[in-house]
Amino acid sequence: MLETFEIERGLVIAVEASTGLPVGKRLTASVTREDGTTLSAVAFKEWLLRRDPRPLENEAYLLPGLKKTDVPVGSEVRLEPAFALGTAHSASVAAQFQSLGWSLTKEFRVAGDIEPYEYLFEWHREGEPVYPTNQ
Question: What share of the chain is helix, strand, coil (3-state, %, to 5)?
Fold first, then answer.
């Protein structure tokens, strides 16, 4: 953790490393304090751009509703997607994912090919994700 600061909507945690987590999507933050107590919260990734005078880009996470006292110095924060991911390698399986309530987020295709070679889905519904039976 690089630093924390409060804003009107919650706590912002700036980090040094790049995680590859999605920007603007709901994430889950797990906070483990030095005393061993834990706390779970919703988080959203944003980018911080600072001039020092050279540009420095850092990730930052908004944890709505939290305060600095909730995440004291020395706490460990673990962030992960708040949704499940699924992949399909054919149009028929992709259709099954969609019929079960998955959201299609990306199609991967080789240049010039009409049919994608892979489909990426996200599960944003409550409860455990439901997968197609014959993948």
Answer: 10, 50, 40
pTM score, two decimals? 0.51
d(CA 25, CA 34): 28
CA 77 – CA 96 distance, rounded (Å) = 36
Distance of alpha carbon 91 from alpha carbon 124, whole angstroms: 21
End-to-end Cα spacing for the chain: 40
Q: What is the pLDDT of residues 17-44, one digit of tens each?
A: 777 788 878 888 888 999 999 998 888 8
Is residue 39 within 8 Å of residue 52, measured between CB atoms? no
Distances from the Cα of 20 to the Cα of 37, 57, 80, 135, angstroms: 27, 14, 10, 27
